[in-house]
Design goal:
Strand order of the largest sheet: 1-2-6-5-4-3-7-8-9
Number of domains: 3
CATH class of the largest domain: Alpha Beta
Strand content: 5-15%
Largest sheet: 9 strands, mixed
CATH topology of the largest domain: Rossmann fold
Order of helices and strands: HHHHHEEHEHEHEHEHEHEHEHHEHHEEH
CATH architecture of the largest domain: 3-Layer(aba) Sandwich
Radius of gyration: 31 Å
Length: about 400
């Protein structure tokens, strides 16, 4: 049975619009919602650029409308773009296609017009169990280590790691997932046939072979600062939650977390040193509404199904932790240095003399105490495990 696809005229109209309107422009999204892609393209094509008539589409200023018309007249045909990406092993998906991820619809009028994909996996299926891992480009070794650890840990648990393909934490997350033979998606701020940054040519190719490379922008388009910012909303919408590893106060990664919160997704942060400016934005996120996570298990506990719990975290269990409460009270009555009598121990341990003697002999058999005449004292090996640092010279 053939998978559902949007009608060809709709696909062509949407593919063309990816060249005409900028990603995330909600005015264009309202046109698509009200008139549909085919009618929207028809009105743009039939508009008189030099006439005095108002724009046939609402909500746009005359200056921007003129620029939009100029761009429309310079764009290649959508058929040519579709043929071009097909030669690259890529494709175009849009609302109405079986592969379209429904969670992108949460963006409302800021929803992508369509997506250009490079890679063999189904974006819709992968997005159902995916987590974004983002962070600073100029990260520290700690950021690289945590990004890679999260990427590998999530991949090993069957989760898809989504990031932006940038230097720093993004690259570490992708590499971690790839190294674990897992699934990863790179959402670019340029065409899927362009490599940015150029130093990541090999990485992006590996992601395309083992995962997916995704972009709202048509083939050949270049990145701009605004496109990086707008790209973040797609990363947030595709995934169940966003983890930020190292981000300064003005980091774009925080924008992804804010989009996640706005869309009802989980926003998580990995803490760093409080003295680190690279982690300052993460700490502000955690101080307000973000959730602190330290590894993949904690991320999955938050975004996964019921019962996918992280292991309980606690310190080592000491032998004295296993003692019955009454025996532990007798042991606690012995000082770190020096000996005490049975009467003194029983008084502080809230036990009778006979009970105190019985507890002391039990403790001696366990190696906690030793007897010297009428006095009792702790053994050498029992002192440090049960005494806070600094109490023993």
């Amino acid at each position: 049975m053939t998978a559902a696809r949007a009608p060809q005229e709709v696909r062509l109209a949407r593919a063309r619009l990816t060249r005409i309107v900028e990603p995330g422009w909600e005015v264009a999204g309202s046109w698509l919602r009200e008139f549909g892609p085919v009618e929207t393209v028809r009105r743009i094509d039939e508009a008189d650029e030099g006439g005095d008539e108002p724009p046939p589409l609402p909500g746009v200023r005359a200056e921007r409308w003129a620029g939009l018309l100029a761009r429309a007249r310079e764009t290649p045909s959508p058929e040519r773009d579709l043929e071009r990406v097909e030669k690259l092993g890529a494709r175009f998906v849009c609302p109405g296609d079986a592969e379209w991820p429904g969670q992108l619809d949460d963006l409302g009028d800021a929803r992508p017009v369509g997506l250009w994909l490079r890679g063999g996996a189904s974006l819709r299926m992968w997005a159902l169990r995916s987590v974004a891992v983002v962070g600073a480009r100029a990260c520290t070794e700690y950021g690289v280590r945590m990004g890679a650890s999260l990427g590998a840990g999530l991949a090993e648990r069957g989760w898809v790691v989504v990031s932006g393909g940038a230097y720093g934490v993004d690259a570490a997350a992708h590499r971690g997932a790839l190294g674990a033979a897992g699934a990863t998606v790179a959402v670019l701020a340029c065409g899927v046939d362009r490599i940015y940054p150029r130093g990541h040519a090999q990485l992006i190719d590996r992601v395309a072979e083992q995962g997916l490379v995704v972009s709202e922008l048509p083939p050949g388009d270049h990145p701009t600062p605004s496109r990086f910012i707008l790209r973040n909303r797609v990363i947030a919408a595709l995934t169940r939650g966003t983890v930020v590893v190292e981000a300064a106060y003005r980091s774009g990664a925080l924008g992804t977390a804010r989009w996640a919160q706005r869309l009802g997704r989980h926003a998580m942060g990995v803490p760093g040193p409080v003295t680190s400016s690279v982690s300052a934005g993460v700490h502000e996120l955690l101080r307000k509404e973000g959730v602190l996570v330290t590894d993949a298990a904690e991320v999955v506990e938050l975004v996964g199904e019921m019962g996918e719990l992280a292991p309980e975290r606690r310190g080592p269990v000491l032998p004295r932790d296993l003692l019955p409460p009454a025996t532990a009270r007798v042991l606690a009555a012995l000082p770190a240095q020096g000996m005490r009598s049975v009467a003194e121990i029983g008084r502080d341990g809230a036990a009778s003399a006979d009970d105190t003697i019985g507890r002391l002999y039990e403790l001696r058999s366990l190696g906690f105490v030793e007897r010297h005449g009428d006095g009792w004292q702790l053994t050498r090996q029992a002192i440090r495990p049960g005494i806070p640092d600094g109490d023993v010279p």
